[in-house]
Structures are given as C-alpha cells and as structure tokens.
C-alpha cells in the first residue's frame, strides 16, 4: 500500500468517528421514506407577496398549488398525472407559468394558468422542442423572455412570449453559436455568450436594435461569465478566471473592455455567486462553497437579516429562497446533512415568522448519519476533498462501504442532505463521496488536471480514496461496492473493469459505457460544445486509442464483480444503448448482471414509483453482495 499524507481535517474526522461508543444501528427506516415525494417543496412568493406557490403531490405527481398568505386552504392549479411538474415561475401576481416534459425526454413545454386554476394555456405546443427561461420580466406582467430551439434543434433563439395568449415574437435569432442570453434590469436582451466549441466570447449591444459586438474572447479554459448588469445598466458584474486560477467576482467596464473592481476572491475555491437587492439597488454579498456553503456580506442590512434568521433557526444551514418585489416578505429554507429541512415565511415589517412545512416530516434526523468533510492525497500529490458518512451508532472500523462518485464530471459534491447517502448509511454502509480532479469549484488547474483522464487519473483519485479508507481501517476490503449515476455510472463501470479486485459489486445508474457511442448520440443542442468535449474527453479519431483504453465496453472481459444497471428508455443525454451494450457483453460471459429499464423515464428516475423500484432492487443487490441490512418484504 502507498503511504498517504493525512490532513488534520481527516485526522480530526477519524478521531470523532473512531471514538464514538459502539452502539446498534437505528431501526431500518422504510426505503419509501427516503425516496417518496416531499410533503411540499419549491416555495415561491408572488411579486406582491400576497400568495405562495409550491409543489405538492397529487396522484403521486408533484403539482403546483397556490395559497393566500394567512389562509390554510391551498388550490391545486395543475393536473399532471404522468410526470411531475418540472418547475414553475410567477409570471405576474395572478398567473403562473410552468414547464413539463414527456417521459423524460427533456423537451420541456411551457404552460401558464391563473392562480385560481382557470385559463390554462399551453404556450409552446411544439414537438421535439425544448424551452428555457431567460427572464421573467419583473416589470412586464404580460410577457416573459424564453429560449427555444424551434427553428433549429441545435440552437436556442430568444422570444418574448405573452403569458396569456402564447403569442410570441423573436427578439434575437441565434446565428448558431450563442449558448446563453442575458438581459439588463429593464428586461432588454443585451448580452450573449458564444462558443465555437473551443473559444468563447461575451457579446454586448447598447439596445435590442443594435448588433452584438464582442467584448472579450477566450479559450474555454478561461472564461468571463456575466452575472448581471450594474444597476445603472452600464457595466457588468462577472465571475472570471481570466489570468488567474480561482474564479472571482469583478465589475467589468463595458466601454473600456476590462475588469475593474475586484469584489471578492477566495484563496481555496471559486467564487461565482453574487447577491443583490433590486429594491435598494445594492450588491449585498457573495456565496461560495469550501467544505460547506458560506456567505460574505458587503451590506449591513442583508448581514443583519441573515444573522437574525440563523439565530431563529440554530443548528441548520439557512438561506432565502424567495422574496416579494418590495423585499419585505421573505421565504426561508433550512437544511442540514441529516434533514431536507423546512420552509418558513417571514414578514419583516410585522416580524411575523411562521413555519410553513417540514419537507420530509416522516424522517427523524436523530436516526440519520452525519456527513463529514475529509481530505486525502492522491498518488501524484493532489489534495482531494470529499465527504464520508459513517452509519449512525457504528464505529468507523471494518465497515462495508459504498463509493459514490458524482456525475458531470464537471460538477462537485457538496455537504448536505442526500436521500441515497442516508438510505445507504441506514442500511449499514459507510458512504464515500469524492471530488476527484476535474471537479468544479477548486480552480482551473484542478479542473484541467482531469482533461482526457477519465478512467485514468480521475479513476485513480477514486481508487486512492478507497485505499485510504482501507489503510485507516474504516473499510472492510472484502465489502466495498461502487454506485453512481451518469458520469458516476461511468466511474462504476470503470471501477469494476480497471480495478476488478477492488470492488465486490457495482451499481451503474444511467452511466456511460463507451466514449465513442456517447459522443455519437449527444442531444443536438450540445453540438456547439462538441469540440470542447473532444478536448476534455478525447477525439474519437485522433484519440481513438485513448478512448478505447478508457471505455469500459472494451474491457468487459475484465469485469468479474456482479453488476446492477438501471436506465431510462428516453434518456437524451446517456442513450439507452450505453446500458444495453454493457449488459449484453457481461451476459455473454456469464457475469451476474441485473438490468432495470423504465420506459417512461429519461436521465434519472423522476416518477416516485420508479425510484421505489430502483432503490428496492439496489438494496437487495447490495445486501446480497456487501452484507448490509435489507428491509423486510412485508414492510415494502
């Protein structure tokens, strides 16, 4: 075994874990309690602050409900029965817009309905077209700005759409390379971000009648991301890593095309979240994530508000999710690593503070497990951050482990409640989450260190985390499994193929098995990013040997651990072929493989009954191969 240099944080974590008295695990919490739909969630205030909207189950699907502040009764205004409402927006004080796809195809259509449930209208009744929100247009009660790939499935044009009639007009036609659109504080479309696959540009225009002109062009490894305009609509606030490793917040001078004031930077992580008060026309603070989420405030009023909320709700992370236009009525949410938390309503004028709902009241956080930040060194000296969840009541000693790599891969795990992590911990497994190289948030150098390293150095980072657990005595080396979704599913397949003696089993959830086939079947609207993906993953012709070396399908002969594969039939990102081909290859060799396909799902299982089926099967699979607890059939 290689020697590991253990950080003080890890030593402290192990001391905490290891010194807990040996106890029994809490009761087996029913699987459905982890994965059922929330009691209510995604609360939002109307612009005037008089009504709440939220998603609540009806017929096992999340539907939009509306409730007047101060009243107990709520009105259901949507009637989805096949699939959850994916999201909603307040169009004005009396009308709500919402989006929904079909069977997981991610071709979201836009609808609108009055808050009493009347005058429902499908605003974009187009086949194989995806709609996105650009701007709700807070000062225009009749219109919204949306993006839509109706004209060309590869690109999204910008439209101003009437939220009652559906009448629309194109505000800007995408020439083929625009990836994002931005408005000023008056709702005028004035900034766009383009990509040719490798180079990115930020474009600007004075008015919607003018032509866009480039402000800055960079290779995609350096970027300047617009956040929003200054309150006089003359300059921009941006998140930028141009000429630096960690992304920081700047003010950008449009006329002179240069960064001016540095608002905030952090020595360890990227900073890209900027808080503002539209009412008071002030920048109020920034948000960033190290081990947990953090704030830094520029504004005393916002700082005082946050402090007051945290004093009212001790022991939880607290953040504001919605405000009325005058910013005097506020919706607050809490969460922790052991709780999905609650929503609260706060009237700052009357000091009325009221709990609205516990999101998952059937879960007792005292029965759940703590998620601890950890660090360790990779074999080539990189500091790798992650999280370790040890089952409540158990010493961190010779435990069965489930390694859970995140998706992306250009994303990161964060501290907080995860249903699957808590489910696994309750069944007796320690859960390791790893922010391997190429995870975002740790700066450009760490991100680029993972380019063309899928199945190689990225996988080594995961392997090194497992070996660290073994060396520390936390993991039972004979009972280690790996489970992940999307890119995490790829890591599962790579783990059982490239380190076949390390894992006792694997669970691949909508994962990639071949870089060649995944690059052939990407959605049409990812086409502008194809060259960038080639540079980050590999080119199917120029890097053929690399992609063959790192695609698990070409190494299926090395896989000997039992595998469970789950796939949505309509997945637009990871085509069903990815799962079909690895399952077929393993079955031909007589390797144990379970295969679950849901015909009404896409990239991950949204419907409640499908989540139940997946995690019930996963629980039995892991119990068989790792020895964890399994809920009795009569309880399920």
Automatic annotation (TrEMBL):
UniProt keyword terms in alphabetical order: Hydrolase
InterPro entries noted in UniProt: 6-blade_b-propeller_TolB-like, AB_hydrolase_fold, Peptidase_S9_cat
Biological process per Gene Ontology, one example term: proteolysis
Domain named Peptidase S9 prolyl oligopeptidase catalytic: residues: 415-628
Record GO terms (molecular function): serine-type endopeptidase activity
Matching Pfam families: Peptidase_S9
PANTHER family to which the protein is assigned, alphabetical: DIPEPTIDYL PEPTIDASE FAMILY MEMBER 6, SERINE PEPTIDASE S9 FAMILY MEMBER
Name of the protein in question: Peptidase S9 prolyl oligopeptidase catalytic domain-containing protein
The organism of origin for this protein: marine sediment metagenome
